[in-house]
Amino acid sequence: MTRLSHSEIHMVHRIGWLRAAVLGANDGLVSTASLVVGVAVAGSGKPEVLIAGLAGLVAGAMSMAAGEYVSVSSQTDAEQADLARETRELKEMPEAELEELTLIYVDRGLDRDLAEKVAVQLTERDGLGLHARDELGISETVTARPIQAALISALIFAVGAVVPLIVVLLLPEAQIAALVAVSTIVGLAALGGLGASADGAGLVHGAARVMLWGALAMAATSAVGTILGVTVG
């Protein structure tokens, strides 16, 4: 039973990372493929399409990194402020903090006497860490790391975005728009199925909804490229 519980905890952690990775790769794939399709349909040559796709990859990855860094930095600031307050309260009002922990454990199902004993013993070992984990929900596994989050977000976005660029490099100019769209739909189906498996949802439903929105995005940029291409021509 202990092994099963331990395994399930690690699976939950992997699912969180898997979901984030799928979303990041999906963003990179859809945005870059849509850009490539739009530029190709507008009548641009292969070099121009490739440059536009590369620019989209770099800009998207940097945007993801910046957004994630700001978001996680804000979370870090909030965590540090909460920990500083807990440190102060543990020094100024240890009895109140002990009572707070006791009530937390009572709410979790322990009787009053046992909850108080657990709170006392664990506080003697690591009071701040105990409050961080059980009161604030902060632990080493969920502590915000802004730089790490930014780099990972940029990398995952780039992994998705590079797929349509590879297609552009390998295909003749006349086939770029159509085959980038097809390869993107296939990639989205795989990502949607992977994300659905992480969420415990149906594979077909998960893949279908991702494919739908990706197709709509490419259709929209294709329409823009067609209109602007005709206008310029």
Describe the structure.
- The chain contains seven helices and no strands.
- The longest helix has 47 residues, at 46-92.
- The chain has one domain (27-232).
- Helix content is 87%, strand content 0%.
- With 233 residues, it is mainly alpha-helical.
Features:
233 residues; 0% strand; elongated; disordered N terminus; mainly alpha
Which parts are unreliable, with pLDDT below 50 for 5 consecutive residues or more? Answer: 1-14
Helix content: over 70%
What amount of the residues lies in strands? under 5%
Total number of beta strands: 0
Number of structural units classed as domains: 1
* DSSP helical segment count: 7
Structural class: mainly alpha
Mean pLDDT: 78
Structure described in brief:
This protein has 233 residues and is mainly α.
SSE order and pairing:
Elements lengths: L1 H40 L4 H47 L1 H14 L4 H23 L11 H25 L5 H24 L3 H30 L1
